[in-house]
Write a structure and sequence with these properties.
By secondary structure, the chain is mostly beta strands. It is built from 5 helices and 29 strands. It has 3 domains: 2-117, Jelly Rolls (Sandwich); 131-350, TIM Barrel (Alpha-Beta Barrel); 352-443, Immunoglobulin-like. It binds zinc ion (ZN) (2 copies). Residues 201, 208, 246-247, 259 line the site of one zinc ion. Residues 201, 208, 246-247, 259 line the site of one zinc ion (ZN).
Length: 443
């Protein structure tokens, strides 16, 4: 059974979710959808149309990739990357175009050819969940942001996990754009000392956020006057997930569609965590601006914590130095890692090892992320594995209070009675960040 749909879009249709309904009869076992659009580019930038598929009850996946020819297959046994296999309920389905970017210029013509099959399919593959060796309270190093072919990455799940093993990480997280299709496979690859974690990258027209620690998709489409980012954040948290604003100061449209954080109602609003370091530090992701945005939010009295994410999409250039999260967690488990990140018990580093703490009057250690309740507000940082000429800086209320030459390792204490918050940065001679702690709050 064959169906054909066609249409035209102009720049007026930018940033829309455009439905195309079609009917799947009883007994169908397989759908093949061919999609084509032209022109793919105008003078400077590509037009970016991505697809989402809905059955009569639920979303069946998203392929966040903008190629001018796309093929989707969904059957009872298999599905194209980004989409979900399973039974094909009869009724009205929707193949939706997400118009991430339609440039000024000639209109974009598109067509769908849909084939519905009824042949018996093979059995679906079942992934069994992998397990790591149990480990208790301690420091764990890992990544919270990565992609595969299930959205716009160039490698499969094994590639991402291999990258984590190569960097001897304790945990690695799959966050494909608006899909959870690879999470069963990701969960199957937890083994020995490497914990695989998951969620998705909420990818909207006006900003990206990580939805960590959940295994179901929810309606990710922010719609003016209908569905807000705060509402979606609330739903992610109700499922036990963690919401992290991603790369807030990345360039936005048309360079990177939707990548810059543009939600006035969450600047930072109720957000508790922000990814201030995306990819490698001297990348085009405007990390310094993101870091300064966070410092500004802290100065406004918001208590929110920072993360780093490689946002890796495929085999990287081997000369790049990535930052990872160093998390003090109760155990090596997804729940414990995310709990620690919610509390700011985490520093971000591409190599230097840091300990940053205060001592309260009752002799209790105050760690990064915590409130310093001691009478004498003393904080101490010790560092190792720095480069000789790195600089260690104490930042108080956004200002550099003191800068020391690292000389690979050392220790220093400061009195910070007048401060609202303080943290420690390590920077190289060029000023690029090599590590930053989460803050200790003073008052
Ligand atoms: Zn993103
Ligand atoms: Zn990403």
């Amino acid at each position: 059974m064959q169906l054909h749909i066609e249409g035209t879009l102009t720049t007026q249709d930018n940033h829309r979710h455009i439905s195309h309904n079609f009917v799947v009869p009883e007994g169908a076992t397989k759908l093949d959808i061919d999609f084509e659009y032209a022109p793919n580019r105008t003078e400077k930038y590509g037009n970016l149309l991505t697809l989402s598929l809905f059955d009569p009850q639920t979303e069946r996946g998203t392929g966040h990739r903008g190629q001018p020819k796309q093929h989707i297959m969904v059957s009872t046994a298999e599905a194209s990357p980004g989409y979900l296999l399973g039974s094909l309920p009869a009724g009205t389905w929707d193949i939706m175009i997400n118009s991430n970017l339609i440039n000024d210029g000639p209109p974009v013509n598109y067509q769908f050819d849909i084939a519905i099959g009824f042949e018996t399919q093979t059995e679906a593959k079942i992934w069994s969940r992998g397990t790591t060796l149990p480990r208790g309270e301690g420091w764990y190093r890992g990544d919270l942001h990565g992609h595969t072919i299930h959205s716009d990455g160039s490698w499969d799940v094994e590639g991402l996990v291999g990258f984590a093993r190569q960097h001897q990480l304790d945990f690695v997280t799959l966050t494909d754009h608006n899909t959870i299709s690879a999470l069963p496979q990701m969960d199957s690859l937890s083994a020995d000392g490497l914990l695989t974690m998951g969620g998705f990258e909420l990818t909207t027209f006006y900003g990206h956020a990580l939805a960590l620690g959940i295994r179901q998709i929810l309606d990710w489409r922010v719609r003016p006057n209908e569905r807000t980012i705060a509402q979606i954040k609330g739903e992610i948290e109700a499922l036990g997930g963690l919401f992290v604003i991603a790369h807030p100061m990345a360039p936005g449209d048309p360079v990177c569609t939707g990548c810059q954080w543009g939600y006035d109602d969450m600047m930072p609003g109720t957000a508790g965590v922000v990814e201030v370091w995306n990819e490698h530090w001297d990348s085009t992701s405007n990390n310094e601006e993101s870091l300064q945005l966070w410092y500004g939010w802290l100065n406004q009295g918001h208590r929110l914590y920072a993360t780093v994410g490689t946002d890796i999409h495929g085999t990287p250039d081997s000369t790049l130095e990535f930052g990872f999260n160093n998390v003090f967690a109760e155990a090596l488990s997804e729940v414990a890692i995310l709990k620690a990140i919610r509390q700011g018990h985490n520093y971000l580093s591409s190599g230097p090892k840091l300990a940053f703490s205060g001592t309260s009057t009752v002799g209790k250690t105050v760690m990064m992320g915590d409130h310093h309740d001691g009478q004498e507000k003393l904080v101490t940082v010790s560092w190792e594995a720095c480069n000789v000429d790195d600089r260690v800086r104490l930042i108080v209320d956004r200002q550099v209070k003191e800068e020391l030459v690292a000389e690979t390792k050392g220790e220093h204490s400061w009195k910070v009675d007048e401060a609202h918050w303080c943290l420690v940065e390590v920077r190289d001679l060029k000023g690029n960040l090599r590590a930053v702690t989460n803050p200790i709050f003073i008052e």
